[in-house]
Specification:
four-stranded antiparallel sheet; alpha+beta
Length: 390
């Protein structure tokens, strides 16, 4: 079966050995005494993340010991040997030279061709993963250059290959831009959490103009109803989704929501819709809003009835390491119900709390929409990879 083609493309795809289409070059072998504070950058597996070059644990060697090919713009660098089998085949298209000069390490290989945009896309396909698995050594996690050259893939004529490469480059750039914006949103939210709530007894630095009164300190249990969980009898666990959802620990909390995991017929302590659920076992302090009508809260969870202002104050407390001073247990960290209920929080008048809560609620919704956009783009890319290649 041949792939979906661009309109006007009527060429038959041909199966060729990789070595007939691309050129390979090897990496640099160096010794510990060759490492320097500056000089030639050695690109290694740790510098490749999500098909991009990243600055991570950079290693430089003395310029005078380099006896391998220098990388060029638009080269593809591929991990061909690693302690982890899952990292074999990890790769990146170098859209720029990360450092002048740069080489690749001995456990990498470099690829050049007339259209590396298409080749980079080809290396993202399931076909490439299958070829790697066929060629991996039984004891050594590596693929040799000779094995790489003999891998067989289908290629179209150069014009269609170039169009495919441009399409996926555009998709990758769109994904990267959306991910950069998502990171900005997370950083902006973290900044506001830091500045709009008390931080180590320091009053908030950002406030709405009309609010000038002093915030009040109180115990969490004096401001909100806190209910500690209690694990039901495991004999009552069921897969019947009409029964109660059991929330047992932080593993059941994900991206501010409750995951459906275990169900139970036993009703012990429950939380209703929109209650705040907080993990009291490692990692302590994870929170989520309960989006179901009612859930059973297990021993690793507590429920709190509170507004958005309290919810995001608890998120700020988690991010700032507030709960660390209360954590007990060397092998399984947790906090007691007493420490949770006695935790000091800050309150203000209802209008200011509502405005602050609305800001963070809106920002959280924007973040979730951005995550959905990225997920949709990645699914589109995966669909095209599956349908535009053999």
């Amino acid at each position: 079966m041949f792939p979906t083609q661009f309109t006007g493309a009527s060429f038959t795809w041909e199966r060729k050995e990789f070595g007939d289409v691309v050129e390979f070059y090897s990496g640099l072998t160096y010794k510990p005494e060759n490492i320097a504070q500056s000089g030639t950058l050695v690109i290694r597996s740790s510098n490749i993340h999500n098909s991009q070059y990243v600055n991570a644990d950079n290693v430089y060697v003395k310029n005078n010991i380099v006896n391998s090919e220098y990388v060029k713009k638009q080269d593809i660098v591929v991990v061909v040997r690693n302690g982890s089998r899952n990292l074999i085949g990890k790769h990146a298209l170098l859209t720029s030279i990360p450092h002048n000069p740069s080489v690749i390490g001995a456990f990498m290989t470099g690829i050049r061709s007339s259209d590396n945009q298409f080749i980079e896309t080809l290396l993202n396909t399931e076909q490439f993963k299958r070829e790697i698995n066929k060629n991996l050594g039984a004891t050594i996690n590596q693929i040799t250059t000779s094995q790489f050259k003999k891998m067989r893939f289908h290629f179209s004529k150069q014009k269609e290959n170039k169009q495919i490469g441009v399409l996926f480059t555009y998709l990758d750039n769109s994904i990267n831009l959306h991910e950069d914006y998502l990171q900005f949103l997370h950083d902006f939210k973290s900044f506001l959490l830091q500045k709009m709530f008390f931080d180590n007894d320091i009053p908030p630095l950002l406030r709405f103009n009309k609010f000038i009164e002093k915030w009040n300190q109180c115990r969490l249990n004096d401001h909100a109803i806190v209910t500690m969980g209690q694990s039901p009898n495991s004999k009552n666990y069921t897969n019947n989704q009409t029964d109660k959802i059991l929330v047992q620990g932080n593993a059941d909390l994900y991206k501010n929501k409750v995951l459906k995991r275990v169900f139970t017929t036993e009703i012990t302590k429950t939380a209703i819709k929109n209650d705040i659920l907080i993990s009291v076992r490692a990692p302590v302090g994870d929170i989520a809003r309960n989006q179901y009508e009612s859930v059973v809260i297990g021993r690793g969870i507590a429920s709190i009835k509170g507004n958005d202002f309290l919810y995001y104050q608890l998120e700020k407390m988690k991010n700032s390491g507030f709960w660390n001073k209360y954590i007990a247990g060397s092998t399984f960290e947790s906090i007691t119900g007493k420490d949770l209920k006695n935790a000091k929080i800050y309150t203000t008048n209802s209008d200011e709390e509502r405005k602050i809560g609305n800001i963070f609620s809106s920002l959280t919704n924007i973040i979730q929409l951005q995550e959905h956009k990225i997920d949709s783009l990645k699914k589109l890319k995966q669909f095209l990879l599956q349908n535009m290649f053999i």
